[in-house]
């Protein structure tokens, strides 16, 4: 099987990882760095991506796109509040955002595809083989169109996206938490520009998102800004120099602030140094971790509010959280770790590199999909409904689409014809109302003893295991006889086929429902005709001949109407027949009660 890579397509940085000898590892580029800045720039020599593009952020901001993830799957209206943050130009075409780069405009998936292509090439160079399949992560709060836009980006980059998984789920997978089988997990993700908190529930190896919260404009960059402001104020006071008039120096201040902040995660004090313009020499400033912490305390505290809200939404108290996972470069700050630990009352997982943990988890998921990691459960949902064909060629769903697997469901069925000696179990997959429009997966026959229609009780059980294997068991509840079959519903089914089947179900919904209603009306009419004919045979002597004649007329009318195409007309004739045959029905019932129950009478049947 072709190798599947795991990709963290981040707002600020992106990474690609793969499974090597049972362990996930990230792939570095020629510069030894694993992170590819999620930046695309248009230069005179064409488009460039990553580190080289990042250098253009200050040089040609209007031709350098960053944070494109914020625009994935959105319309211009959705992001009005964001526009002030971005120097590049956005327009809209057909409800989809377009980003202007030089003379051309690009959609967010096209820009993301450039980043993905860079990661794909990096993986190909490292592994010496062509890479065409990937698992890509997205924030847990991404909606369908944002997820679809991410898939589109993969497709444009020449990658088949086998699965889109949630970033907090990936982080949990990287720590192997799925092996614990149960528990609640808080994933605290503080990156450069965004903060996300997700509360997950793990049950039998399946992760469910209970709540998410966060702040889309809070991250390490804000901490850098606090520190940079301190330096700028200091320089103004010491040298009477306002650096805001010097864009290059402003950028240098910001970068030095970030470097000093990063150093203070490891040491207790450091010295920040900067070259000043106009021959003013060199600025130096000593800084302690305590000083940094008091400067940034408010920002760190601002992450705790969303954590409390997410806990509240999940209906949990902090001490009900079993595991805390840290994601994002800013969680290396000792103050951040301490505050998270204080809130949840447990030591968070931070053994793995917080910048890499999401990509590593994506590689674990990729490995599960390629069948490499067999002792882990597959985290999946059924993409299409599974069910059986019932009388008249109608699909009866047993497990609905998007059910998390492993999953199981039972339904009771019966026979429609007197003396039937077997029932055909035809297993179907799809969203359409009629069996013939769905995918046929398998069929088998269960023998039943001949009995009147409606008497046998056949229990059909569908079970899908963690590997997506479907087991269908049909059991005759009277005799205990059973028969089963195993199929793999995903076999030979591509993502595009799944999408087409779902689209078709919307496209043909109205026609399908009418067809189903007609079939059901005809079946019900058929059953009523049969029972009325039987009643006439058994009970003609019990009622007046006028009533018999009226019943026969209504019966003939329904028999003719049954072959019509309007289910409402059939139902109306059924109601007529039921009304005409009411006396006959009551008479037969009273007759059998008189015989069976010592003369107790009913006067009316409702
Ligand atoms: P991410 O978006 O997850 O790559 O996170 C990037 C952010 O993490 C930037 O704001 C970095 O300054 C910050 N960061 C990286 N390493 C450290 C560190 N050792 N201490 C504090 N912040 C860091």
Explain what the structure shows.
The protein is α+β, with helices and mostly antiparallel strands and 606 residues long. It contains 16 helices and 28 strands. Strands 1, 2, 3, 4, 11 and 12 form a six-stranded mixed beta sheet that branches. A four-stranded mixed beta sheet has the order 15-14-13-18, with helices on both faces. Helix 6 packs across helix 8. The longest helix has 31 residues, at 509-539. It is elongated and about 120 Å long. The protein starts with a strand and ends in a 10-residue tail after the last helix. The model is unreliable at 375-379 and 598-606 (pLDDT under 50). Bound molecules: adenosine monophosphate. Residues 12-13, 191-192, 219-221, 258, 261-262, 265, 328-330, 332-333, 355 line the site of adenosine monophosphate.
Helix content: 25-40%
Mean pLDDT: 89
Query: Segments where pLDDT lies below 50 for 5+ residues?
Result: 375-379, 598-606
Bound molecule kinds, no repeats: adenosine monophosphate
Q: How large is the radius of gyration? A: 34 Å
Which structural class should the secondary elements be placed in?
alpha+beta
Give the overall silhouette: elongated
Q: Beta-strand level of the residues, as a percent range?
A: 25-35%
Largest sheet: 6 strands, mixed
Q: Report how far apart the termini are.
A: 64 Å
Helix count, DSSP H or I runs of 4 or more residues: 16
What's the β-strand tally?
Answer: 28
